[in-house]
Design a protein that fits this description.
Elements: H1 2-57, H2 61-69, H3 76-96, H4 100-112, H5 119-150, H6 154-165, H7 172-197, E1 205-207, H8 215-219, H9 223-235, H10 241-247, H11 254-265, E2 274-280, E3 285-291, E4 304-311, E5 316-319
Antiparallel strand pairs: 1-2, 2-3, 3-4, 4-5
Length: 328
């Protein structure tokens, strides 16, 4: 009996050793599982950031934001980069629409954002800010040239257009402004060419009398006006004077064109209004009316102008909408 009791001890010891071993394995397995989960999460975040950086470097900002949003458990780096790209996209959109007043606030927010040190984001931001500065400069030259042209300061207008041409077209808005300025420059060249070939030594800037002048005012006009009428009559002797004046507009002097425009416009202009022909095509004359400033007004230093297009063949007159630039 004593022998049987002693023989059971080795079996009990082996069972205990087995239980301890299994317990250790279970704990170790649990530790490995937790560690693997943490590693997988870290790898997932790293992959998201890497892919987003590649897209940012290619200026695919919308795609990069989608990539960051796909992170299952976004950490601070992912969230902060996503915020920076949001500011970037708002500024970029305002710049694309050439809304500089709106873009100013967006770019201030973007430039001051320090929530991320992501290298790709910082490089993209610097490039966009440079484009913003160039677009602002291009707009300044374009607007100055347009204002110069409205007051018939052709020399200064051409100088500003030349400066605009020298701005690097680093953004589509700049290309569009340069294209519009090229059309302005061509209009100036056409006008100067028409003046160099016009008959007589009459000034291109005409101080016109009111369109409602009486017949006695017309009879007392200068000899140059009489000469104009005679020339017009000679060029159109084969038809009625009122009809032929329109059909042979290319042979008319500046004063005759201005007079026809006033009659067709149906507007009573002040006697000290100046009229400048700023553009001439085969279909119409573009005429800018420069009104004398009211000395008693606080805005006396500002020149007030209206721009019209006179179509001599049809006798129609359209006026430019200063807000949209269209003629109606």
């Amino acid at each position: 009996m004593d022998h049987a009791y002693r023989s059971s001890w080795p079996l009990i010891v082996m069972v205990l050793i087995g239980l301890i071993t299994l317990s250790g394995c279970a704990k170790n397995t649990g530790g490995v599982t937790a560690s693997s989960a943490t590693t997988a999460t870290n790898n997932s975040t790293t992959a998201v950031l890497t892919k987003a950086d590649q897209q940012i470097s290619q200026t695919k900002i919308a795609a990069a934001r989608k990539t960051l949003a796909s992170a299952a458990n976004p950490n601070a780096a992912v969230k902060n980069l996503a915020t920076g790209l949001k500011y970037y996209q708002e500024a970029e959109e305002a710049l694309e629409n050439n809304q500089l007043s709106l873009a100013k606030g967006y770019f201030e927010t973007l430039s001051s954002y320090d929530g991320t040190t992501d290298a790709s984001f910082i490089a993209a931001r610097q490039k966009l800010v440079k484009q913003y500065q160039a677009v602002k400069q291009a707009n300044g030259y374009y607007n100055a040239a347009r204002d110069d042209l409205s007051v018939h300061d052709l020399t200064t207008a051409k100088a500003n257009i030349d400066k605009l041409d020298q701005v690097s077209a680093s953004h589509p808005v700049i290309k569009e402004l340069q294209k519009k300025a090229l059309a302005m420059k061509q209009a100036i060249m056409n006008y100067e060419a028409s003046q160099s070939t016009s008959s007589g030594s009459e000034s291109s800037t005409v101080v016109s009398s009111s369109s409602s002048s009486s017949s006695s005012d017309s009879d007392s006009a200068t000899s140059s006006t009489d000469s104009t009428s005679s020339s017009s009559s000679t060029a159109t002797s084969s038809s009625d004077s009122s009809t032929s004046s329109s059909s042979s507009s290319s042979t008319l002097t500046t004063s005759a064109i201005i007079k026809q425009f006033q009659d067709a416009a149906g507007v009573t202009f002040a006697s000290d209004t100046e009229f400048n022909i700023t553009k001439q095509t085969s279909d119409y004359y573009q005429i800018t009316a420069v009104y004398a400033a009211d000395e008693s007004s606080s805005s006396a230093s500002k020149t007030v102008t209206d721009t019209y297009r006179y179509y001599p063949d049809s006798g129609n007159v359209t006026k430019e909408d200063s807000a949209t630039g269209t003629f109606e």
